[in-house]
Amino acid sequence: MAKQIKTAIQPARDEDYPEWYQQVIKASDLAEKSPVRGCMVIKPWGYAIWENITQTLDAMFKETGVKNAYFPLFIPLSFLEKEAEHVEGFAKECAVVTHHRLEQGENGNLLPAGKLTEPLVIRPTSETIIGDSFSKWIKSYRDLPILINQWANVVRWEMRTRTFLRTSEFLWQEGHTAHATKEEAVSRTKMMLDVYSKFAEDYMAIPVIKGEKSASERFPGAVDTLCIEAMMHDRKALQAGTSHFLGQNFAKASGIRFQSDKEQEEYAWTTSWGVSTRLIGGLIMCHGDDDGIVLPPKIASSQIVLLPIIRKDADRQNIMEYCETLARELKEITFAGRKISVETDDRDIGGARGWEWIKKGIPIRAEIGPRDMAENSVFMARRDRPHREKTSVKRDKFVSDITGILNEIQNNLFNQALSFRKDNTVTIDDKGDFYQFFTPQNKEKPEIHGGFAMSHWCGSEKCEEKIKEDLMVTIRCIPFDNNENEKGKCICCGNDSSKRVVYAKSY
Amino acid sequence: MAKQIKTAIQPARDEDYPEWYQQVIKASDLAEKSPVRGCMVIKPWGYAIWENITQTLDAMFKETGVKNAYFPLFIPLSFLEKEAEHVEGFAKECAVVTHHRLEQGENGNLLPAGKLTEPLVIRPTSETIIGDSFSKWIKSYRDLPILINQWANVVRWEMRTRTFLRTSEFLWQEGHTAHATKEEAVSRTKMMLDVYSKFAEDYMAIPVIKGEKSASERFPGAVDTLCIEAMMHDRKALQAGTSHFLGQNFAKASGIRFQSDKEQEEYAWTTSWGVSTRLIGGLIMCHGDDDGIVLPPKIASSQIVLLPIIRKDADRQNIMEYCETLARELKEITFAGRKISVETDDRDIGGARGWEWIKKGIPIRAEIGPRDMAENSVFMARRDRPHREKTSVKRDKFVSDITGILNEIQNNLFNQALSFRKDNTVTIDDKGDFYQFFTPQNKEKPEIHGGFAMSHWCGSEKCEEKIKEDLMVTIRCIPFDNNENEKGKCICCGNDSSKRVVYAKSY
């Protein structure tokens, strides 16, 4: 038997993936559970990732003409009820505000008081409240398109929660647009999916498949839901972003009407699209390894940590000065649209220090001891390489090469993830093979099986439902790059099919 | 009688200040009332100001070592109860979540269902929920200080609301720090007040008085509340930011303990500090005039609007190209840490177009017609000058001077506001004069009177209360730059006093 190599995170991914996930979050200091059921505390190291995500996406949205605004946290119950499918989709997970005061009860305890005449729902999403504003803002075709985005917190009262992936409160952005024509709205829906896909691949280093949801997986009230789907390291799919074409459903519900250029009163065509702190969960599960998270340099909380090695007190001042000068120089360099962020950690805690930064996933660690200083160099380690692999680099070369090194790490992470997805994506045409693909072969490691199956689907909800019941596998999307001419037989019923879809277990 | 000059905003400030305020917000398209009681919709032109405020302050906070994080929207009732004064201060205005589901009632209406075992309060402020995290994060003096900030929405159920100034939901930042010593916490409280004061004066162009609140005006649970106070154009005071030294009150309530360097268990010393979207209300009332808002260039939603004047269709292409090239060049220029933002408005709506931008308060309007183009110039108007005053400026000079012009406008706004405050700040030592100062002399314009009265106060809550009852005037702050050696007599009771304070009506 091979010797068990101890990893920084226990258990390793292959031993118990869900537990590995929780332990990585803890070890990397990204977030923690809060005393409020299902709500998380996003700690500074995790929040910094979110800040980079928001800044990058915000700029990308604005380039397409989108402007930010802010709408109320509360949605009157009557608003939510305006769109039947919509309210049905969210009724089971709404936090409801019923009182606006606290009063001392008979036993001295505080009790809710001041009952509201109409209960308020905390926004699970804002189509209805934003729709109300749109109905006032839009009078004529000249007011269109309206392109709005909101960065906000939303609440969906989930019964089973998991940090970042599914929490009762989460942070997100929600874009809402209104257009004069169907074509324009459809094209905006696709445009925003392209923004998400570009962001996921270029910044998060997460390869994604773009496609369309089947009817049963659509956003409640949408005509069409587009999505990007990514493969996590346990081979499950994560929906990383969605863009919805809402047709005229919400325009009719909220009365978003306009005078057309032909002087006719028409309903607007609307879209909505969003990504959330869930992306951070995807980041962890796409790039993390058995030593912790691995942060893609372009959205890393910080890119570089300097680790001064001070063996004698007499060396301290010189080494610290060397580090400070180096840090100052590095911080002047722009990478991925932002100044490089540099940490200096001079805590005297031995080997634990280096491991802390490995677990935190910082792209580059640079040790600086008396010898490195004497040689005018740094001792560099990269998070995308084995932790023991360290290289002595001349200080000036380190500075001048730094954006190149960061880009190389970024690309390596993307390519690794892409290879992994390719290795675990299988074209399956036989029903038996399909069932076997999604059935755990090793009872001790039930997590390790399956992947993405590219199989034919006849289009019937019945087949979709059957596969879901039998295997807990769903259609993640009908990919855009489908070979539309390829005919085949539905993997479930054997009837004619004109398209392959992505089947997978999912988060 | 002088001829009545019609202004863009009706009524003018001197006619009906509160109504002027609402009309300015409407005319400038900053925000609107929402269908949810007391909640506002912040429209793109208003939200862009908030984005600039947050970006600027965020960078200033980070320079002092503060890091961002995010804590739950919900606070368990039992947490709020931990600090007695705190809960008393907020109990009357808490939105309370009591259910987590909606269910169809007998008549088909949706009703709240799934009653929570413990009601959750929507954060009015986060001392107690963040204190809980701090109690887990802090073990030893080595973990201190902890310097955290959160950008978030909070809810205080106000009975009388006013856009930006007092809304049930508002956006803010709340900083929370924990320290090993009292001195360090006190010094952090002052440091953050200095940040606010610098930001208000340098970016918002709002002169502020720094000082300490009297006991009755303190934050519920604080040992000491520091504040910055600004004078609005109706001579009332606006509290523009507060920084609280919380002593060990919240540390005791939340159990924030640490092992000191002398190996003793001690309670930490904490601070909290915040500014909110209320600042935008202050901006409107400090700089706005009878033609609309006037935005200080450093935090303006946009600095420049180009207004092509196209009289013949044949000119359109050339003029638009001229504008586009100019806009591109201007957008490359950095001003106050950000790229200059430029709008181009080619709507053919006559004089209404220019007035719209005046009402929106954009610092610079530049008209570009065929003659301007032929002369390679622009026809520039500045929002800090009369609207008819326009100057022809050579295009290249316009570009090369732009940051200088913007800085000049910025300084003008600050100096105007400072003069106005000086003109309306009076040292008063006679009780009769004091009462007259705060009593409207003209019944038709009750808003126009008073200002800041620098008068002596003996320190008793009774005198403070009496003045408040008689005149609705409160002690805004005990200013730091008080002449401490100046002895005097309390303006209310005539007893000995060692300090002048700022008395004013306030928002």
Explain this structure to me?
The structure is a homodimer of 507-residue chains. The first copy, chain A, is α+β, with helices and mostly antiparallel strands and 507 residues long. The first copy, chain A, has three domains: 17-287, BirA Bifunctional Protein, domain 2 (2-Layer Sandwich), CATH 3.30.930; 304-405, Rossmann fold, CATH 3.40.50.800; 425-504, Translation Initiation Factor IF3 (2-Layer Sandwich), CATH 3.30.110. In chain A, the strands form seven sheets. Chain A has an eleven-stranded mixed beta sheet with strand order 3-7-8-14-11-10-9-24-27-23-22, with helices on both faces. In chain A, strands 18-15-19-20-21 form a five-stranded mixed beta sheet, sandwiched between helices. Chain A has a three-stranded antiparallel beta sheet with strand order 4-6-5. In chain A, helix 2 (44-63) packs across helix 6. The longest helix of chain A is centred in the C-terminal third of the chain and has 29 residues, at 395-423. The model of chain A has no long low-confidence stretch (mean pLDDT 95). Chains A and B meet through strand 2, helix 2, strand 3, strand 4 and helix 3 of A and strand 2, helix 2, strand 3, strand 4 and helix 3 of B. Strand 5 of chain A pairs antiparallel with strand 5 (96-104) of chain B, so a sheet runs across the interface.
